[in-house]
Amino acid sequence: MTIDTNINIKNMKNNRKYNFTRGWLSGFTQSDGSFTVVFDKRKTGLLIRPKPIFIITQHISELELFKKMQEHFGIGYITQNKSNQSVSFLVTSLSQIDKVLIPIFDEHPLSHGKFKSYLMFKRIVKKMLNKEHLKLEGLLEIIESSYFINKVTSLRTPESKEKLLDFLKDKHGTLLPLTGSDYISEIYEEMASFSPQPLSLDFVTGLIDGDGSFNISFQHKPTRRVRANFTVVQETSCRELLNELKTFFGCGNVYDLPSAASYQVNDIDTILNKIVPIFNKVILNTKKNQSYQTMVKVCEIIKAKGYESDENYIEIIELAYDQNKSGKNLRLSKDMFIQKISVADNALFCKSLKPQIQKRTISLMSHRLLSQIGPDQREASEMFTESKLNPYFISGFVDGEGSFYLGMSQNSKRSGG
Q: By the 8 A CB rule, do 365 and 391 touch?
């Protein structure tokens, strides 16, 4: 499949096609989904009622995707958080969890740490469907089990559990200790007996929609360089999944991070020969599909023409520089970045001129630069117009301020220019 060089992003947004499958939902959940149980205080009964919650969260830009996903699977509801610019798809109905979600995750299993959390969550749901949460012993077992869900990343602490138990003690007196830990050991036995199947394409697509990224980075000094990078990040408990992903694609490497692990492919030939043929078979449902197409187009340009010439280099910049949320989080705008390239090239040109015409050329360049930048950058640029500039000032200015680097990720705010 050849990437269309004239992609109309506006029309793409208005005519997006989604491919929701049960395997995709499992992969998407592996990345951005979670299972949790909250405890609501009541005025009757045991005074505490467990509430299992399945939730998937993404940036608010995926609101339309979530609406279509809810419509397709026919369950749950959607909430928006304007303060952190997020949208969430939640399922809290025991019936919907039991009749829709559990069959999906049993048929298309999650992996490693997320699989363990699901098994504990499923057990709690089944106990509630059997009304065991209405008995004190059953409620205590659910409370204990809930603290093993997402244990590595959960905000719950032993102190918060004790507060919950102290509340029950105040209402019901001394609590009987749980009889053994059979309910925990059964989960570990089920995990040990589980034989993971090879990753499916649908699962991998959902995984990439959640935790994948397609990046283009630029370096202008000391040498010009453009790099492409395909990355998937998982929490430490799911590191082995990244090794399975390496086997699935037949390439890449897995790296340990401070609190997670990442799978990376950063060789252009490998991306074109290994990654692209697989992803040409599917459609990414999130806006990462646009980032993917941009990355592939950049790789094709580099493979065919390179980026040594200014024309090819600027073509790549025009295509990929604003990939990260239209450049809103970049220190330099795309135009300013291109202008810096022009200044650097012009400085080298000035050094080749005879001394008597260097100052005149610098003056012309400075006026041209000031006419193309905004008022925020004029103060730093006015030094170009000083009459006593050293003929090699611009070259020195570029040497001091001419290191250009840009990293881009669909949902990252750490990008910069």
A: no
Tokens 């993404």, located at residue: 58
Mean pLDDT, all residues of the chain: 79
| Contact call for residues 241 and 112 (beta carbons, < 8 A) | yes
Q: Among 193, 213, 248, which residue terminates a domain?
A: 193
Q: Judge whether 43 lies within some domain.
A: yes
- If you ran DSSP here, which 8-state letter would residue 3 be given? P
Cα(392)–Cα(55) distance, rounded to whole angstroms?
60
pLDDT at residue 346 above 70?
A: no
Distance in angstroms (rounded) separating the CA atoms of residues 91 and 105? 14
Per-residue CA distances from 292 to 194, 208, 322 (Å): 34, 10, 14
- Could you give the C-alpha distances from 370 to 275, 388, 398, in angstroms and in order? 44, 18, 16
Whether 314 and 340 share a structural domain: no
Same domain for 178 and 78?
yes
**Token pair belonging to 369:** 């630069």
Query: Among residues 169, 193, 217, which one ends one of the domains?
Result: 193
Q: What percent of the chain has pLDDT over 90?
A: 49
| CA 9 to chain CA mean position, Å | 20
Give the residue among 267, 263, 272 at the shortest CA–CA distance from 292.
272
Q: Are residues 36 and 180 in the same domain?
A: yes
Q: What whole-number distance in Å separates Cα of residue 19 and Cα of residue 85?
A: 25
Shared-domain flag, residues 156 and 207: no
d(CA 321, CA 351): 29
Tokens coding 23: 């395997």
CA gap 230, 292 in Å, rounded: 9
244-288: pLDDT as tens digits: 999 999 999 999 999 899 999 999 999 999 999 999 999 899 999
**pTM as predicted:** 0.76
Residue 414 in domain: no
